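Spend some time on the protein that follows and explain the fold to me:
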Amino acid sequence: MESDIGWWGVLIAVIGGAIRVSTPFLFVSLGETITEKAGRINLGLEGTLVFGAMIGYGTAVLLSEAWVANALAADPTVRVDVRMYESAAWIGVLVAGVAGSIFGVVHGILCSFKRVNDIALGIALMLLGTGLAFYFGKPFIQPVAPDLPAIPLGNWSDVPQIQAALRVNVLFLIGIALAFVLWWALRNTRLGLIVRVVGDNADAARALGYNVNLVRTLATGAGGVFAGIGGAYLSLYYPGSWNEGISSGQGLMAVALVIFARWNPIGCFYAALLFGGAGALGPALQSVGVTQGTYLFNAAPYLLTLGIMILTSSRSRALAGAPGELSITR
């Protein structure tokens, strides 16, 4: 069958790009939603994302190499099981999540001290995370790590573009499920109520007997877990390698996505998809021969985000749905 499907390929590529590119944005924005619902902003998630990408990739590389070396030492003719590689990748994701939680808890603890500004501290931790990732990640630029598995939902088609576009990573599906679970939990569980009370009115939370600093620290730590996993997705699936330019500001952009989504986890899912599709527009147009305005198309995600923030904002709705204790509302 003819594989060139013309302009239909643009739509297919945008859909595939929305699925692939949106996943790290989804995880980071969900993590930031938890953090901001508790009344704190974490601009350090960009550093957490980059560090998670590095440590997840490095863990997968070292584990897979060690397992292969041990297997060959025991039996030089052994054939390595692909599931072993996938296990190394998943362990890398878990390690990235743990590393993210550490960054988040450190951020939460430091913000508990008086006169510590959460925005300034977030910027400092962003620089720390990226610096540590660049320093410790030097040995992992060349080695190849195992990829996370993907589900081939496009195998019903004989068109290669459709097959490639509909290869859905498991983390994308997990992210969708987490968005709905988090939306439900914040509305219908006691834990969600505590987080919202702390984020809306700290004095009322203290009057009810809740430890505001503890709740915010745990919420920031949970947000760090999500950001670390988002980083592992970048290095272990798409683009699927570790390098110092792996992130193009997804961690910082997630803060804007949360505001655009009105602090709604399901809204974060839709916003991440929209941003992912915009990011895939430039490469999709290039695939059908449109080369004029390449840099403008590549800037589409940022222009789209800026335009949406302007169009959906007003004096009365600019911070609609924002937790009352956030720095941007006080």
Notes: The first helix runs from residue 8 to 37. Residues 8-329 form one domain. The CA atoms of residues 119 and 269 lie 24 Å apart. The chain has 13 helices and two strands.
